[in-house]
Write a structure and sequence with these properties.
The protein is α+β, with helices and mostly antiparallel strands. Helix content is 39%, strand content 22%. It has 2 domains: 121 residues, 2-Layer Sandwich (Beta-Lactamase); 30 residues, no CATH class. A 5-stranded antiparallel β-sheet has the order 2-1-5-4-3. A hairpin with a 5-residue loop joins strand 1 and strand 2. The structure holds flavin mononucleotide.
């Protein structure tokens, strides 16, 4: 559970800009352009050396990235739509192309170029990914309004148990209802 209002705030990628990054073969960021830093809300040096899943959004199904790595493993380019997480908890959607960087015929890195996408496609992909998560991971996205005192108690419990608050809510609801 993320209790920041930023979670629902979208940052748009300007239509004349590209987000560019490169990673080593394990997916650690080796290069990030200024647009990537600005749109993700991180400083460039906060991104370098970090695994690329630093911007992974919880709405993204695991299977998308499984396919991405399988495609790269075959030496092919992966293309797709990705919802990414900003440092402040907000999000941004991109159309991404990820492929290998070769030096003298040897794979040395991966690179990714990401461009803005239209509103209609974002809505379509959000629905598709919600369905995927339901089918593959048995989870559904839900927005609920809870009394603040209850939220505070749940967050305290989550901190004490060092577990995500949404897991605790899940358990409480399951125990109470079923
Ligand atoms: C060049 C390159 C760019 C990537 N860009 C993103 C990205 O923008 N967002 C993202 O969530 N994962 C991206 N990934 C995939 C991540 O490495 C990772 O597999 C993914 O975030 C899922 O995280 P997980 O494997 O920890 O579940 C990229 C991978 C490569 C090789």
């Amino acid at each position: 559970m993320q209790t920041t209002y930023q979670m629902f705030v979208e940052t748009s990628v300007p239509s004349d800009e590209l987000i560019i990054s490169r990673t080593d073969l394990s997916g650690k960021i080796t290069y990030a352009n200024e647009t990537f830093a600005r749109i993700s809300g991180y400083a460039i040096d906060e991104l370098i050396g970090k695994p690329h899943n630093i911007v992974r959004h919880p709405d993204m199904p695991h299977s998308v990235f499984k396919t991405l790595w399988e495609t790269l493993g075959r030496g092919e380019m992966w293309k797709g739509y990705v919802k990414n997480l900003r440092k402040d908890g907000g999000y941004y959607w991109v159309y991404a192309e990820v492929s290998g960087v070769y030096k003298d015929g040897v794979l040395v890195e991966y690179k990714s170029l990401r461009a803005p996408m239209d509103e209609e496609t974002k809505i379509k992909m959000q629905r598709e990914y919600d369905e995927c998560k339901k089918d593959e991971e048995n989870t559904s996205r839900a927005v609920i309004y809870l009394q603040s005192s209850l939220v505070e108690k749940i967050e305290k419990l989550a901190r004490e148990k060092n577990r995500p608050a949404d897991e605790i809510i899940n358990e409480i609801l399951s125990d109470t209802l079923f």
